[in-house]
Known about the structure:
By secondary structure, the chain is an all-beta fold. Helix content is 0%, strand content 41%.
Amino acid sequence: NELVHVKHEVPYNALGKKLQGKFRMGDYRWQTTPRKIIGVFTYPAPVYWRYMVAGINNVSYVESELMKVK
């Protein structure tokens, strides 16, 4: 039962507003709300593990799209 931050698909600024275009240096890349991993799925190569998190339905993430809460 680990808590993780999920990677944003689009950039957000420091005020929490969605931005258009590519990520820039000061943009937030990770969601600030920690989420609990509720499911782990196994797949063949090249991606062996995918993780489902609480609060986001019908989506699974690879390890590089999640960051452990410190």
